[in-house]
Specification:
With 318 residues, this protein is an alpha/beta fold. The protein folds into two domains: 182 residues, FAD/NAD(P)-binding domain (3-Layer(bba) Sandwich), CATH 3.50.50; 104 residues, FAD/NAD(P)-binding domain, CATH 3.50.50.60. The protein has seven helices and 17 strands. Strands 1, 2, 3, 4, 5, 6 and 17 form a seven-stranded mixed β-sheet that branches. It has a five-stranded parallel β-sheet with strand order 8-15-9-10-11, covered by helices on one side. Helix 5 links the parallel strand 10 and strand 11. Helix 4 packs parallel to helix 5.
């Protein structure tokens, strides 16, 4: 059956990059500088880091917001000729030109594909979580924290993202709880120190949320052990920071090999088992998920694509 999508088949890109975060935009910068015709297709401009109010561990910036940092990445990618399109890629398949990349409305052809889709937030799986999503349950403190001025909220999780969310929420809410199943926070020590200096953040360790209740909106969380003599914690809002899962579904469809956790298997050159498909950033089996690592992998992926397409060596490259 012939597709009724508006095809872009007359244009064959050298590289289509799926994802617009650290990895995707870094790949775009290098791909365009290698004079490859480059298209970035991103569902969310800037990736997950745009939700961070303060980024303090990216070299060159003492402190910068995530959205401002990624705007600089995007501006640089565009300045060297990369095209950037906001859309959701729903499929990638092999084609005589290399690969066909499909979005909801269009089809694109490319000689190579760089997968840099990042991860998706892990959802809370307890009774009431789906019912109260966006009615008290949230997955983005930056997006929704301001709605809770003078109210009581909680953050689930013990990582850096949990600490950042709690500190942001402390600016608005009168009381912020951190609910974590472990014995102590897993965030960077400096973040723990910063939180302890704030008077309206209370940490509750070795505790899980088992159910969420309320009326039209969330009113309370039920805990698996008492806090201040009760297993019910009155809340106006609950922000979930319990990790993420790789956005690798389209890679699996193409036959790209994944780990048991769903991460794309990529070698040191960011090559996958499918010739012409490269991968970079948090969607891969990288042991450390940090922006600077993702950016470096994006550079590697673009360089590998260039070498494959041209057969030319790059000074200092493999």
């Amino acid at each position: 059956m012939k597709s009724d999508k508006k095809s872009n088949a007359k244009i064959v890109y050298d590289a289509i990059i799926i994802g617009g975060g650290f990895a995707g935009l870094s790949a775009a910068i290098y791909s365009a500088r290698y004079n490859l015709k480059t298209l970035v297709i991103a569902k969310q401009p800037g990736g997950a880091i745009v939700n961070a109010t303060h980024v303090e561990n990216y070299p060159g910036y003492v402190s910068i917001s995530g959205i401002e940092l990624m705007q600089k990445f995007e501006e640089q990618a565009k300045s060297v000729g990369a095209e950037i399109m906001i859309d959701d890629v729903i499929g990638v398949m092999k084609h005589k030109e290399g690969f066909k990349v499909e979005t909801e409305e269009k089809e694109f052809l490319s000689k190579t594909v760089i997968m840099a889709m990042g991860t998706e937030r892990r959802k809370l799986d307890v009774p009431g979580a789906k019912e109260y999503e966006s009615k008290g349950i949230h997955y983005c403190a930056t997006c929704d924290g301001a709605f809770y001025k003078g109210k009581t909220v909680a953050v689930i999780g013990g990582s850096n993202s949990s600490a950042h969310a709690a500190m942001l929420l402390s600016r608005f809410a009168k009381q912020v709880y951190i609910l974590y199943r472990g014995e102590e926070m897993r965030c960077e020590p400096i973040l723990c120190t910063n939180m302890q200096q704030l008077g309206n953040i209370t940490m509750i360790f070795n505790t899980n949320v088992v159910q969420l209740k309320g009326g039209k909106f969330l009113e309370k969380a039920l805990l698996d052990k008492p806090f201040n003599g009760s297993t019910e914690l009155a809340l106006d809002g609950l922000f979930v920071e319990i990790g993420s899962v790789p956005s690798s579904a389209i890679a699996k469809q193409l036959g790209v090999e994944l780990t048991k956790e769903g991460e794309i298997k990529a070698n040191i050159q960011c090559e996958t088992n499918v010739k012409g498909v490269f991968a970079a950033g948090d969607v891969t089996n990288t042991p450390l998920r940090q922006g600077i690592i993702a950016a470096a992998q994006g550079v590697k992926a673009a360089t590998s694509a260039y070498i494959m397409l041209t057969g030319k060596k790059v000074t200092g490259a493999w």
